[in-house]
Amino acid sequence: MILKVVVSALCLFFCTVSLVCAESDASEFQLFPPGKPIETYHIPNTENIVDAYLIVKSGAYARSEKEGISHYLEHLVWMNARDGASIELSSLHGFNAWTSGEATVYRVSADSSDIEKLIHSISMVFDTPDTFSDKMLEERQIILREYETRTASDLLFSTRAKLRNRAFGTKGRGRSVLGTPESILSMLPEEAFAVHQLTHQPQNAVLIITGKLDLENLKSLISKYFNLPSTQIKSKQIPRSRFNLTRDIQEKEVHKFNSEILLYLKRINLQTSVSKDLMQLRLNFLSDILNSTLDGSLAKPLRYDAFISSGYTLTLGALERDEIVVSFSARPDVGVSLQNLLLAFEQHLKTLEKTGIPSATFDRVRTRKLNSISRVFDDWEFALDLIISQIFNDAPIISPEKFKKRLSDITLDELNSLAGLLAGPGLVVGTLVQPISTK
Fold first, then answer.
1. Which residue intervals of 58-156 are DSSP H helices?
2. Which end of the chain is more exposed for a tag (fewer CB within 10 A), N or C?
3. Which residues are paired to 313 by β-bridges?
4. CB of 320 within 8 A of CB of 269?
């Protein structure tokens, strides 16, 4: 494994403290060569504000403990760091954190003059408390209110959770990031920090720094506060997952939900192994086509021509190197049943498999995507999102030009091959949600 630190010499620095697979077991710094486009990024008028994002590559999907334990730990980590800090933190700001299925992110901001305090504070994410305070137990009530707020704002929250559980089981992606009321109230600080000891280690984290900084000083501070060893780290490979091809469409009445909606998930095994980041790039391209009003789309026949759906959301995701997932939710138009909406959706996928995507549609969407990238790559926030997404996907951090070239290299045949898979065999789960009649 190699310790990678990726930085830029101008206004925006992306500093990555990350362990990646390599032939050597030595720790070393790897820098973007001079002249790489990353050096052109900048933060207008805020060059003296430094942001640190520490991404721990372990989230809700990776754990086998109580549902929601990673999210509970995220709350406790900053509480422990700030309560037990040996330095004054009042000059720092922007303390925040969030947990996803794949990772947990901790963020803090400071003026560039406080860079040492910033690095020191973000390194405290790795600290384990000597004792557990009553405040840590009380935090469970905060999380429970967060759960209740989420369920109140999304009447289908529990239905979506059950759908994921039917698609992925009780582990991995079938688990809830927030947890359940029962699991939230039963969690203990010592259980959370047992997970912390397994996951919150420098060799399992990525550090991104944005701001105007001195490179040598930054490297020195990272070495000082992260205490990074150069010992060899064993890599782990995620085993290929296969699943039975089943179809499970259920009907459900939901109290207070005032309209019908189709919820649909489909897991599809790939026949060839493609890197997750490249597959996601292809899927994003394909979803842009399917969600357009051009020939070969889904929006055109489902919503705009035949008035079958009054609105829908379609997302395509790459899970591992050999699996993708289709997520579709839609409301039927006036006079259309949920069953006919589902039938029309799957029929149009089969039609797309036979006819393919028209070359004119492919060219139109590709041109628009490339032009859009040219406009937004000067935006530092877009660049930051791009790098974080690459980290989440265990993908190499690449320059904007290389990203644009990878998009340009996608072919119509590749997208048609993917489009054909959408109508093919897979594990399908769905729920036909109907409001309970008040008559």
1. 69-83, 115-123, 134-153
2. C
3. 329
4. no
